[in-house]
Amino acid sequence: MKKYVLTLALLALPFCGQSQAARQIDSAAVYLLDRMADIIGELEAVSFVLETATDRPDDQQKMETHYSVSQVSMEGPDKMVFQTKGAKGKHGFWYDGYYATYYSFDENNYVTLDAPGNIISMIDSLHTKFDFQFPGADFFYPSFTDDILQDFGTLEYMGSAVIDGEDCSYIRATNENMEFQLWISHSNWNLPKRFVLIQKGMQNLRFESVFKSWELNPKIPNTVFEFLPPTNARLIDIMEKS
Description:
It is built from three helices and 13 strands. It is mostly beta strands. 29% of the residues are buried.
């Protein structure tokens, strides 16, 4: 899987770019981001668990936090599968290099779409056309560091911190509208451990994820990425975003 890191635009919170204020970029933080992205970029396959908490206003504009857990597997350049369970129910996604299928476990229905021939193009296409979300995909595009530098005027290495008993490097990036915090493991692999997005001026809405159970270069059978409709599952159609 050669360097897949997604821009922050695919996250659940709305994103606004940096202002024209003076930039403050910490070279130590840039080095840590580049090293993490390079290590991820050399992986041929990966599996992980992503636990996510997302703030959303309810109908009365009171803040609610929605939780979900996703199990994700990818094999470059053209295979991906994940299952997510949370406040919106349970759903799964299968991509085998030719077709992408979204399945709702709760409604027992699915949609299968023609898809581009690599993970990155597939993610870009299905997010743009249908607003599909892909857990953890931000860290698997080739331009992660460049995107951070483009979108945030301040980038700082904040020192060390312990997350779930694991020593990590703590990085913070800010602009006028957004704060991005990232903890990178001190282990030899330097993989992301936790990240937080805070939308300023909007009740400080937060999007937070924790990576767990990393498996690096696992042997994943091709059949794992192929969707087999359950008994009595309904094939449905969906409309592209207008």
